[in-house]
Amino acid sequence: MTGNITLSPEAEAAITALSGPGGHLLPAAELTRLLGAVKADWTRLARNWDDLALDTHMADGGTYRYRRYGQYDLDPGTGELTLLPHEPYRQESEVNPLNGGVDRLFEPLTAAFTGDPLLRTLLVALGRVFSAVDGTRHWNIKLHPYRITAGAEAGRPAPEGRHRDGVTFITSLLIDRHNVTGGESSVHSDDGTHLLTTTLSEPGDLLLGDDRRTLHSVTPVRPVDATEPAHRDVLVMAYTTR
User: Fold this and answer.
1) Residues with Cβ < 8 Å from 131, sequence gap 6 or more?
2) Which end of the chain, C or N, has fewer beta carbons within 10 A?
3) What are the residues whose beta carbons fall under 8 Å from the beta carbon of 16, sequence distance 6 or more?
């Protein structure tokens, strides 16, 4: 429970896992049920990934990542979700040794993306799950829609290797996989204990982690058919206590 809000069985299972080991896989069927979504909602949301911009801040010189960026404030009790003014994204070098230590200015989220009703439902629902874990009353949410392409150059969803993001809770939502192999996600505790490994494969598969107590990684993706376009689309949502 968060205030007077009753949480679904799917949400309760996530709360139990995050309160315990710190990592949880919410399969697409369960997330769809939790959100009251239908297939058309996922299809509509996925169209936004065709409108991302090349990430020109990759210190490894890679040209395989496309993205946008934006952030919200959320009151999970009332469901009030406020889009914040656009600004650069920054992680310090001790958190992100590859791309940290500089302000990175990405293209903002589009109106079609921020106006999507499924996105709003998703952000509020996850905020209530996380508040039920640690009692947080207000969240800052940073959104990172990514497309990782694969061709002659392998796509690296997590080029920094096993890492944390310096936030409170971190999530990775699969939007689409097209003509790729790889992309296996793993979650470990601080002491290196393996908690789970999964390959997000169905649109709506969601991996959740307590970023304060776990580290995560994703293996590279490569094309199944090298003559055809290949990509992996995800939405990373980072929740930080405001």
Assistant:
1) 2, 76, 77, 137, 139
2) N
3) none
- CA 207, distance to chain mean position in Å, is 8
pTM of the model: 0.93
Q: How far is CA 129 from CA 133, 175, 199, 209, in A?
A: 7, 21, 23, 12
Query: How many angstroms separate the CA atoms of 228 and 100, rounded?
Result: 33
Residue 210 Cα to chain centre, angstroms: 13
pLDDT bin (cut points 50, 70, 90) of residue 18 is very high
Q: Which two structure tokens, joined as six digits, stand for 27?
A: 């399969």
Six-digit token pair at 88? Answer: 């650069």
pLDDT greater than 60 at residue 4? no
Task: Express each pLDDT in 106-150 by its tens digit.
Answer: 999 999 999 999 999 999 999 999 999 999 999 999 999 999 999
59: which strand partners?
none
Q: Which H helix or E strand runs over 210?
A: strand 206-210
- Which residues are CB-neighbours of 20 under 8 A, at least 6 positions away? none
Q: Identify the pLDDT of residue 101.
A: 67
Measure CA of the first residue to CA of the last residue in the chain; give whole Å: 20
- Please give the structure tokens belonging to residue 236: 């990373």
